[in-house]
Amino acid sequence: MKRLILAAAVSAALAGCAADTQTSRLPAGVKLIESSVEQSQGISIPYKKYQLANGLTVVLHEDKSDPLVHVDVTYHVGSAREVPGKSGFAHLFEHMMFQGSQNVADEEHFKIVTEAGGSLNGTTNSDRTNYFETVPSNQLEKMLWLESDRMGYFLPALTAQKFEIQRETVKNERAQRVDNRPYGRMNERFSEAFYPKGHPYSWPVIGWPEDLERADVDDVRAFFSRWYGPNNATLTIGGNFDEAQTLAWVNKYFGDIPRGPEVKDMPRTPVTLDKTRYISMEDAVHLPLIRIGFPTVYARHQDEAALDLLSSILGGGQTSLMYKNLVKDGYAVQAGVSHPCQELSCQMSIYALANPAKGGSLADIEKRINESIAEFETRGVTDEDLQKAKVQFEADTIFGLQSVRGKVSKLAYNQTFFDNPDIIAEDLKRYSSVTKADVMRVFNEYIKGKPAVVMSVVPKGQTQLIAHADNFTPQRQTPVVTDDTVKVADAAVSSFDRSVRPSATDAPVMTVPALWRGELANGIEVMGTESDETPTVELLVYLNGGHALEPVSKAGLASLTAAMMNESSAKRSSEELTQALEMLGSQVSFGASGNQSYIKLSALTDKLPQTMAILQEKLFEPGFTEADFERLKQQQLQGLQHQLNEPDYLARTAFAKLMYGADNAKGVSAEGTLETVSGLTLDDVKAFYEEQYRAGNAQIVVVSNLKEEEILPQLAPLAKWQGKATPEPASRPLPKLEGGTIYILDKPGAAQSVIMIGKRALPFDATGDYFKADLMNYPLGGAFNSRINLNLREDKGYTYGARTFFNGDKDSGTFVAYANVRSDVTDKSLVEFIRELEQYRTQGITGDELAFMRSSVSQSKALDYETPYQKAGFIRSIQHYQLSPDYTTEQAKIIDSISKAELDKLAAEQLDINDMVMLVVGDKASIEPGLKALGYPVKVIQ
User: Fold this and answer.
1) Core-most of 222, 332, 364, 896, by most CB within 10 Å?
2) How much is the mean pLDDT over the chain?
3) Segment (H or E) for 126
């Protein structure tokens, strides 16, 4: 990514003769609208904005620092453009846009991008739909061909069969993300009560199930014709490209597409409530939840910034009133306030998860929330509140611009909704100009004494916990029969042969980051690299141990200890430390995982000394108070109880137990169990701190815009750290796997089944059989267009996604095949998994798949080192596994030379279903008969 441009103003400017000169060199039909001006102060994203004759807006941002480009096409249409009775169309259509076009075959879109070494996706929200790809820079023309083909030539390839498959895929997505997830239906129920009947935000983006059933392929044609014209789209390109050539390609591929129907902005009608509306819902949850929403304004309204600051004071972390009054005293496990804004409407959103150990009454929680709101009126706004908001916004903005994708997304969003690609300077001014009086004014205007929607979500059968009896029943508007006069668009007439896929030039030459190695005075190894793209520092301290260091009987201790390190020190309270970090725009956090504990520091470079002082205080002088311990232990216990309702959590923990056994750290969750965490004491935490947080266990990775000789002296606070490395615990015997056995874990009433098939496999290595097995797996289940995903998702419509992967660490590894599938096709899905594994094991990789793997994996390396965290991850791999700095060169040779015979041998060795266990988490009553009929041994586990 290019170094962050500092510019005092980003207002669009046409520079007289210079602009005229530029315009004279543009392709016919392309007009320069504006160009940003670079100056010496402030933060901005330089860009140029063009428009084609058909109305397509084009925004270009050049960034020569990495050999990649990010392409984004945003259409100004989301679920808000739908009509009652046809909800979910915008999102369903997003799926359809990946199913091929006139010159791109069915299931080929993902293959083309992936084979080019790229990544891609699409997203839909209430206000817009976007499609995006990040690819090596030599693949830009191909991406423009792809995006233009589905913009102008989609309808000729649309079939009823494709529509039916994607409708099933969306239904699977809804089942996985909404129906089969705790609190999954909360948002749609809340929106029905919050917005007036028929309001564009009153239905869910994913749609009501009955509306999805009602849709047909003609509805899709009409939706495309109405909303997917070039004049309703913004094409944004960022990265390493030649501007003149790119404009020529854009005009070539998009210029022939005819203008679509005109699209007007929707009215921003204020949301009003006549009284406070109480609604409630029972769900398969453990923690009672209350959600409160107050209607406010809309995105970029003059009061938005003040309302954002108000939300931060009320519930924005450990320095907020809600944290102090609800979480700190243990009445809530979590609580927060935010002010999310959309194009048409914003809301002040308050939530709290009640602590069952304190009774779990949502009426009590609502009372405490209201008392906190009243307390704000007495407390008012401090100078620190205003300064913190300014610092946080500026820091968040800078960190958000560390990738080309981040910058392109910002440009696309701002152009789509505000007709101005770069409004960062304006936003910074908005937030820095907020006064105390502004915050009090919006509090009085939108919150104090105003009606709200109050929703209670309680465990099934515990309606006594709701905040208040329901006094409102949402009314869903009946389907609207429209006299749709939109003419179904004809395919554009192309001035050239679009069936010829553009070729790519030679792949860009990738160079890995230049690394340096240093050592602190106490012997701690430091590895780093210089990254001058943003004035930031990313520092990570890794401590070997983590969950693996704790006894199985005390599982969860490493996580609880890390949580305690995030709290008070011996000198300052949690709130005081958090306030100090927020005033710097910095973050310091402690965490733990399977084989390590870690410390993460993020700071603006000029704030590093002050941030290091806070890290030093938290690391060397932890407070370890009884109050913090009891609160965090309760939070960890309640979190574990909550996760017992999560199908994926049940599957992960049961699978680990099958692989490694209940007496092995790898067989037990790093978060612990209800039994192990219940037995932990503050003395356990203190003892683990002494064992884990030693200099001998530590290694450091740092990525910043400072040179080695500049950054190392600033790490001096860590040079006084003492303590020898802690010996690793002895490994325990592993259980014998009963290969070919199906295990059922019952989740009564589950809408989907989680399938995990696997075995113990290869430990990690960077250039040996583990790496080669990963290459072998890529066409089987590692890519979107892999055999297994295309079969179960695209061909059968059984799942939202299916994959296979190898996962290894230093001393062990696993192979896993995984999917969430519709409950009614659990047995059929398992049959397809087995068939695909067996066929690949016996027949091996095809020549086309081998070529695809080589092209995709090798070219994707251009995307690996862009952001500071990507660079840090690369360095950590070298450090943790003691790899040669040029191991990627050896990997490239293997990718280029590995033979079909070697890959087939690995498939034959690793993919025998008789070596694997098959775990299914789902509704036992409905899935067991079908699974037993498959002929494998079936066991039910707890």
Assistant:
1) 332
2) 93
3) none
